[in-house]
Design brief:
Blueprint: H1 10-14, E1 17-20, E2 23-26, H2 28-60, H3 63-88
Antiparallel strand pairs: 1-2
Helix pairs in contact: 2-3
């Protein structure tokens, strides 16, 4: 288990990770960096898959090939997006 506690104490801001009982404490700067990186990864993935890769594949591949490719790509796409959203929460 881990918990994110944002604090302004000097001890917590000098180290990105500290231990507080059973919980792992992440500084507010580290939590903000993790949030922004996961949001950027999620947003970039959604934008690229929806507006660039999806449309390009739809227009240029035969229907059967497009369906086969989508059946392989979308489970990975949804797992990545789920992981990034979980990090943001």
């Amino acid at each position: 288990l881990f918990a994110v506690y944002t604090t302004k104490s000097p001890a917590a801001t000098t180290n990105a990770l500290t231990k507080f009982g059973k919980h792992l404490v992440i500084s507010s700067k580290a939590a903000a960096a993790i949030h922004m990186l996961s949001f950027g990864t999620w947003f970039g993935t959604v934008f690229y898959t929806t507006f660039i890769a999806g449309i390009t594949m739809f227009k240029n591949l035969p229907r059967r090939t497009f369906g086969s490719l989508q059946s392989k790509l979308f489970p990975l796409y949804f797992k990545l997006c789920t992981g990034m959203i979980a990090l943001q929460i």
